[in-house]
Amino acid sequence: MHRYSKLSFLAIVVFTCGAAAYAARNGAESDVLAASKARIPLTQAIMAAERHANGKAIRAEYEHASLGWAYAVAVASGGKVLDVRVDPDSGTVVSSREDKADRDERD
Questions:
Q1: Is there a contact between 94 and 70 (Cβ–Cβ < 8 Å)?
Q2: pLDDT, position 13
Q3: Is 60 contained in some domain?
Q4: CB neighbours of 64 closer than 8 A, spacing ≥ 6?
Q5: Signal peptide position in this chain (predicted)?
Q6: Which of 12, 16, 19, 73 can pair with 49 through a Cys bridge, CB separation 3.0 to 4.6 Å?
Q7: CATH number for the domain including 19?
Q8: For the whole prediction, is pTM greater than 0.70?
Q9: In 10 A of CB 23, how many CB atoms?
Q10: β partners of residue 96
Q11: Distance between CA atoms of residues 7 and 12, nearest Å
């Protein structure tokens, strides 16, 4: 449980810093507004992604893609990095794929 407390704190700090950086850009107010309307918190999205990929989150953000807003969580699992997208309203994993760009170049 203590591990999730640290992870939750880190996620909140990362999300807050990211939101502030986005707000500093022109037109980014809509990004921050969209993030504030998410029904589930970033910490819950991270936990869902970690369970799905059976690994540890290394990066997470709230982003807009062609299918709409979602949490994008990078999870390290078994020597791979998986990009897991989590629905911000239901907290369910909507997609997962290996991120070959994050692989160690020595492989």
A1: yes
A2: 62
A3: yes
A4: 31, 34
A5: 1-23
A6: 73
A7: 3.10.450.40
A8: no
A9: 12
A10: 84
A11: 9
Domain hosting residue 63, numbered range = 2-102
The owner of tokens 């591990």 is 3
On whether residue 53 sits in a domain, the answer given is: yes
User: Phi, psi (5° rounding) for residue 59?
Assistant: -165, 145
Asked if the structure places residue 107 within a domain, the reply is: no
pLDDT tens for the chain, residues 1 to 107: 566 676 666 667 666 666 656 555 544 557 778 778 889 999 999 999 999 999 999 999 999 888 889 999 999 999 999 999 999 999 999 999 998 875 554 44
Q: Tokens 């921050």 appear where? A: 32
Instruction: Provide the strand spans (E) within 1-107.
Output: 56-65, 68-77, 80-86, 93-98
> What is the full DSSP assignment across 43-57?
HHHHHHHHHHHTSEE
Amino acid occupying residue 81: V
Residues β-bridged to residue 97: 83
Structure tokens at 27: 């037109």
